[in-house]
Amino acid sequence: MLIHPWDAGSSADEWTEFVRATQFGQLVASGRDRAVPVIVPTQFALVSSELVVLHLARPNPVWKALDENPAAVLSVAGDWSYIPTAWKAIGDEDPAMGVPTTYYAAVQLIGEVEVVDDLEGKAEILRIQLGVTEPGSGAADPIEHGRRLAGICGIRLHVTEVRAKFKYGGNVDDEHRAAVDALLEQRDGPGDAAARRHLRRRILTERQED
């Protein structure tokens, strides 16, 4: 994806916090000599900046693509909010000449997939995922599902490259960003509060770096 310098993730803490909060993305496996890649929407757990775990049903077409080529991308995007034309104009600027945009965060985790098919390995992945999605729920230990574990395979994605983008007005000055911030607060639509948090955090980070 295109990442301008002003949109680039500022630290591992920034992108890991976003990825952990989102918990859902698309696993992309290109395989070999395919017209299009296999793209699988999936829940996942970020164990560390270098490891992601998840599980998928055994009939999933992704396994064949991973047999052909174990390289994969986990694409995570969210916290998006549309910024209308008029919002990009302040003071005497013509609202009709504003340039609309969309604020959003996107992280692509690139690495090699290790397929996990032994019962204890799959149970451990499920334990990690349950610890993220419903901690303290009292759910049975996954190993107790016995034969049902045969219906899934686990994945450990060993991350070798991270592409992180946080597109929240980094190409304009504080005055324009403050105007958008106020309008997002006023509109308070889906995604607006999350976009405001990113916008404010990145402004604060820039000031601390100056």
Describe this protein's structure.
Helix 4 (174-187) runs antiparallel to helix 5 (192-209). It is elongated, with a radius of gyration of 20 Å. The protein has helices spanning 12-22, 62-68, 119-133, 174-187, 192-209; strands at residues 24-29, 38-43, 45-48, 51-57, 71-83, 101-116, 152-167. Strands 2-1-5-6-7-4-3 form a 7-stranded antiparallel sheet. Strand 1 (24-29) and strand 2 form a beta hairpin. The longest helix is centred in the C-terminal third of the chain and has 18 residues, at 192-209. With 210 residues, it is of the alpha+beta class. It has one domain: Electron Transport, Fmn-binding Protein, Chain A (Pnp Oxidase, Chain A), CATH 2.30.110.10.
